């Protein structure tokens, strides 16, 4: 997101979590969490979370040691997904982003995240508070929008900031904390009520209209 972009962050959650979030408790789950939760949680479960590479492979073959010829192996299904054996644990905070220039319509599948929507009308200030709190814990922060790719065509690295496009409707903006931990991390970033509005998710019909809502 460029600093010149006018937009909103929308954090959709269960009602019981709203007050703690407004108090400034920002919950960063582990990347492994999203691959291990109940498969019926269709908006959170992602078996491909943070795979390292997604490859379009034409053929796999093994070499005959006697004559040096390569023998093709059948049954290949693309994309071939690669996870590195050794990698750093990451802690992730996800949020829905709407930019005015996109004039995007809010996809109602996102309502499955919860009954309440916390609208953050100053994403820049929100980001500064996350960085300040992380620095106090000697943690680094990286953030950017998710890039969604077609699994039938994309060939290359994936990592924490790319996802397959079946999740494109989530318009996700993501923060990473590192070095990560094998357990969730809660950042205490301070009271957020000065930059937030809380509504029922059923009120979200057109994100363009939300740009006129200010605390």
Structure notes:
By secondary structure, the protein is mostly beta strands. Helices cover 13% and strands 33% of the residues. The protein folds into two domains: 168 residues, no CATH class; 29 residues, no CATH class. The protein has four helices and 15 strands. The strands form four sheets. Strands 1, 2, 7, 8, 9, 13, 14 and 15 form an eight-stranded antiparallel beta sheet that branches. It has a three-stranded antiparallel beta sheet with strand order 6-3-11, with no helix packed on it. Strands 4-5 form a two-stranded antiparallel sheet. Strand 4 and strand 5 form a beta hairpin. The chain is elongated and about 75 Å long. The chain starts with 6 loop residues before the first strand and ends in a 5-residue tail after the last helix.
């Amino acid at each position: 997101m460029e600093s010149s972009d006018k937009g909103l962050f929308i954090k959709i959650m269960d009602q019981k979590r709203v007050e703690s979030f407004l108090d400034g408790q920002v919950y960063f789950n582990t990347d492994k969490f999203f691959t291990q939760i109940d498969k019926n949680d269709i908006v959170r479960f992602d078996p491909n979370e943070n795979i390292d590479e997604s490859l379009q492979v034409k053929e796999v073959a093994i070499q005959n040691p006697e004559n040096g010829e390569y023998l093709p192996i059948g049954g290949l299904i693309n994309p071939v997904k690669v996870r590195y054996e050794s990698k750093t644990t990451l802690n992730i905070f996800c949020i829905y982003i709407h930019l005015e220039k996109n004039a995007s319509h809010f996809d109602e599948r996102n309502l499955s995240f919860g009954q309440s929507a916390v609208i953050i009308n100053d994403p820049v200030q929100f980001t500064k508070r996350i960085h300040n709190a992380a620095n106090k814990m000697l943690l680094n922060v990286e953030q950017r929008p998710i890039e969604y790719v077609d699994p039938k065509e994309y060939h290359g690295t994936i990592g924490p900031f790319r996802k397959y496009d079946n999740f494109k409707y989530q318009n996700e903006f993501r923060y990473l904390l590192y070095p990560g931990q094998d357990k969730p991390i809660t950042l205490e970033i301070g009271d957020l009520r000065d930059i937030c509005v809380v509504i029922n998710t059923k009120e979200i019909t057109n994100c363009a209209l939300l740009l006129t809502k200010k605390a």
